[in-house]
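Sequence in, structure out. First:
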Amino acid sequence: MLALSSALEALEAQRWSEALTIARRTRRAHPTGALRPELTVIEIEALCGLKSLTEAQDVADAMPRADQTPLALERLRRSCVSSK
């Protein structure tokens, strides 16, 4: 939970690289964790902030169907990528 809070704080402060690093590190350390959808969305939003639009879209495209919660899809619709 601390990692998620830290990633969200960095994202809200527009510290894109920091948010991306925390989200990726945590998601990779816990690939089947309950926070995976939220961490993936944070990763995508951070990539959008960094203007890495192609990479953000690639991450969104690779997002497992099970992770596409209503909240995650809503956040993706407001980001630089389109939801599936």
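Second:
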Amino acid sequence: MEKKHTLNQHAIQDAPLKKRKRFSGTVVSSAMKDTAVVSVTRYVKHPKYRKYVRHSKRYKTHDQGNTHPVGSNVVIEETRPISKDKTFRIVSAV
């Protein structure tokens, strides 16, 4: 007879929570409903030339009510997937 494995509830409660990623960036678009596009810029050292190069990436973030206008600096945080592209939410304005 097969023995079914049960998940230990204490193991789930004692497991550490995953630390969420936080970035600061600038709102570049807020044309969509409850969504703002935030551009995050970071500096990376080039492996060969050893010069710092600017890399930027755009994140679609959840902005309830479109309260942050274009050009404002905000802090975004990783969250559960809200839609196909949105996995970040705006935490606060800087």
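Remark: Helices lie at 9-14.
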